[in-house]
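Cross-posted from the bioinformatics board.
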Amino acid sequence: EAQVTQNPRYLITVTGKKLTVTCSQNMNHEYMSWYRQDPGLGLRQIYYSMNVEVTDKGDVPEGYKVSRKEKRNFPLILESPSPNQTSLYFCASRPRTLAQETQYFGPGTRLLVL
Amino acid sequence: TQLLEQSPQFLSIQEGENLTVYCNSSSVFSSLQWYRQEPGEGPVLLVTVVTGGEVKKLKRLTFQFGDARKDSSLHITAAQPGDTGLYLCAGPLYGGSQGNLIFGKGTKLSVKP
């Protein structure tokens, strides 16, 4: 079954404690990205990757890092989380061509930073 | 400044009614996508429109991309309770990276039986 998986699904942490949210896809997609979704602000892109070892900043990259060492995985790293990073996070993947209607989102990771 | 403005923000209708939601911008987009998101889940892609003036149909849903590629609309005929959800439009700016997707804030639709 084609899917994007994220772990963990729920996380409560404290300010400054480094964390990683994993994202994995089984569809051999070139493109992967991370979004955060906040009430009143909608979905905002954090980082995206068009292929292995190629990453670019989205609209809200501050406070986040990513890496793309393998095609299937695209972890999101918060080196020093702060309360304003409390949010619902989504990972997504798709083939290189945007016109193909096969973009998939993961189930989401709900993060609370105290 | 929101690059993609969606309207209305909220819409509550009775089963069987027709409705249209809008996605507008002053910027040109390479393409636009429409998603539906249900509470606690990730968005699900419904359609991608690429060509200015393009119309796509998905059962009772009709999607249109404006001639100038600055706006799009989603029309639902004979809405059903299963259509309830948050409808999002998104796209890459024309001339920008295909990877950099801009999302609208969405239209929250509620269809009552």
